[in-house]
Amino acid sequence: PVKVIGLTGGIGSGKTAVSDRFATHGIAVIDADIASREVVEKGEPALNRISEHFGSEALLEDGALNRAYLRKRIFDAPEEKQWLEALLHPLIRDRIIQQINRFSQDPEYKPAYLLLVSPLLLETNQWELVDRILVVDVPREVQLARTTARDNCDPKTIEAIIAAQSPRDFKLERADDIIENTGSLNDLHNAVEKLHNQYNQA
Ligand code: ATP
């Protein structure tokens, strides 16, 4: 079976930049963010559960999830947030497992490993699905500057998101491998190449 490398890091730390580079080497990338959107697409059973629980306002007229409404309902409401996560996290995990299995069983997939990119790898039980934990890490100021530039938004918004995420140390303590993404994109690519060789061998 194929090895699974779990990639995580805070907002704007470089998860996408790292996974894009692994992808250029033919490495499959499973994205937990995509899975988390798929489980609440129109027609998914989770949507019914959400509208039963939060009321019909949780759905837009066309039946899609009303994200803004839901965000408001779980903001400063820990039990509601917990309820939602208890519903969605197992569904997201199942989707991830399905995709891992698909690559594992695909004789056409030749690499020794694949990547699972997840902002909540270590905060959910998704870490149990991976063989190694790779953390992409930057100091807070770099994180803030790059994310603000990328999203063209108020630094205050990003600061609040950083404050709500688990601390750098929490991630670094659990890492098997670390990419220090303070240099250029070229430095980042070199770091990825090194890990790619390592993961392909072991
Ligand atoms: P999010 O958690 O928000 O999805 P992310 O961890 O995927 O973010 P990226 O989007 O990969 O982070 O990187 C954040 C921004 O910083 C992007 O605009 C990216 O192009 C830029 N960036 C990443 N690494 C570097 C680097 N080494 N040098 C310069 N810019 C970088």
UniProtKB/TrEMBL annotation:
InterPro entries: Depp_CoAkinase, P-loop_NTPase. Keywords: ATP-binding, Coenzyme A biosynthesis, Cytoplasm, Kinase, Nucleotide-binding, Transferase. GO terms for cellular component: cytoplasm. One of its GO terms (biological process) is coenzyme A biosynthetic process. SUPFAM superfamilies: P-loop containing nucleoside triphosphate hydrolases. GO terms for molecular function: ATP binding; dephospho-CoA kinase activity. It catalyses: 3'-dephospho-CoA + ATP = ADP + CoA + H(+). ATP binds at residues 12-17. Its EC number is 2.7.1.24. Pathway: Cofactor biosynthesis; coenzyme A biosynthesis; CoA from (R)-pantothenate: step 5/5. It is found in: Cytoplasm. CDD domains: DPCK. The keyword Secreted does not apply. NCBIfam families: dephospho-CoA kinase. Catalyzes the phosphorylation of the 3'-hydroxyl group of dephosphocoenzyme A to form coenzyme A. This is Dephospho-CoA kinase. It comes from Oleiphilus messinensis.
